[in-house]
């Protein structure tokens, strides 16, 4: 990576001064600093396939899910977060690939939904955690999805809790800007079924979106790429009209191949979507949620816990039944 950074620095120095110092959330493009996306060698489907070669579902899960680049989620289960994030992006950097990471540890996480409740013990604990996360990535190229669900549902929160959450997110973005200059951070914006575009534009702006590279949509949900693209474009129109700027956005396509049936928690009959790629109607289409990992004790995942890999659900999702 060092030779790419030197080349980038030389190119920036050669630019006219007014362009070189133009304000930007990040100076570098991690997609041009790497050669494709990183496949997590220790994802839950990878581990399941390795342990179940004789299972009749293993070949399909391996071919259609386990070898697709997808995000690794980081939270309290990750141990020393600076070390964990650093090891992951370091492994990707050594093979010249772009890693996808999800920061999922905000204080009062999933406060209204409850299926993924938890997170840091306090706002100050989160501030320390996210600072170590950014520091672990450092100057290596990465993409980070910042705190799925955090802006989607304010229905049970007081204004003081909302202000506190938005302050944590603004502080997190500042840490990435300070410590991880080659990381694109996308502040999560829920999905089109949660909040209208004007409301989401306001929430994003108040949570510090101007500091982020962009925003993410449809994380762990099932709405079609077309629905999310239309929503993202409308959010940007609202941002432009109200605040004078717009941002790129990415869409989680991991489970939206059949669209949504109106249920969000382990619905039956869903299908994997377009694999991780640049473009596709958004800046990137990404597998952020791992297909086959449970949303919680509900639907076809009854009896499971959030994040648990369910091979039968994964297998059916390949074929859409």
TrEMBL record:
Signal peptide coordinates: 1-27
SUPFAM superfamilies found in the cross-reference section: Glycosyl hydrolases family 6, cellulases (SSF51989)
EC number: 3.2.1.-
Group of enzyme by EC: hydrolase
Keywords: Carbohydrate metabolism, Cellulose degradation, Disulfide bond, Glycosidase, Hydrolase, Polysaccharide degradation, Signal
Domain of life: Bacteria
InterPro entries the UniProt entry points to: Beta_cellobiohydrolase (IPR016288), Beta_cellobiohydrolase_sf (IPR036434), Glyco_hydro_6_CS (IPR001524)
PROSITE patterns: GLYCOSYL_HYDROL_F6_2
One Pfam family per UniProt: Glyco_hydro_6
Active site (record annotation): 149 (proton donor)
Record-stated family: Belongs to the glycosyl hydrolase family 6.
Name by which UniProt lists this protein: Glucanase
């Amino acid at each position: 990576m060092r030779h790419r950074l030197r080349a980038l620095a030389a190119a920036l120095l050669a630019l006219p001064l007014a362009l070189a110092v133009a304000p930007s959330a990040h100076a570098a493009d991690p997609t041009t600093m790497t050669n494709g996306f990183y496949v997590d060698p220790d994802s839950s489907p990878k581990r399941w396939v390795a342990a179940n070669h004789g299972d009749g579902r293993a070949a399909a899960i391996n071919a259609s899910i386990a070898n697709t680049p997808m995000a690794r989620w980081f939270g309290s289960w990750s141990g020393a977060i600076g070390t964990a994030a650093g090891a992951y992006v370091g492994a990707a950097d050594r093979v010249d690939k772009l890693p996808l990471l999800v920061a999922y540890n905000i204080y009062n996480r999933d406060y209204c939904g409850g299926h993924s409740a938890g997170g840091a013990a306090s706002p100050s604990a989160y501030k320390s955690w996210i600072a170590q996360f950014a520091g672990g990535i450092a100057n290596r190229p990465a993409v980070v999805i910042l705190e799925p669900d955090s802006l989607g549902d304010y229905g049970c929160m007081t204004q003081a809790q909302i202000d506190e959450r938005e302050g944590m997110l603004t502080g997190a973005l500042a840490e990435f800007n300070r410590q991880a200059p080659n990381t694109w951070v996308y502040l999560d914006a829920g999905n089109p079924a949660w909040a209208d575009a004007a409301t989401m534009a306001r929430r994003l702006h108040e949570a510090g979106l101007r500091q982020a590279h962009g925003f993410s949509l449809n994380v762990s949900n099932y709405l079609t790429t077309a629905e999310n693209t239309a929503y993202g474009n409308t959010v940007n129109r609202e941002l432009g009209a109200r605040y004078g700027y717009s941002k790129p956005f990415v869409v989680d396509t991991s489970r939206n191949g059949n669209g949504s049936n109106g249920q969000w928690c382990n619905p039956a009959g869903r299908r994997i979507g377009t694999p991780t790629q640049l473009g596709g109607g958004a800046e990137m289409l990404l597998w952020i949620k791992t297909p086959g990992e449970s949303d919680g004790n509900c639907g076809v995942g009854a009896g499971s816990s959030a994040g648990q890999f369910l091979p039968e659900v994964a297998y059916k999702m390949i074929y859409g039944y």
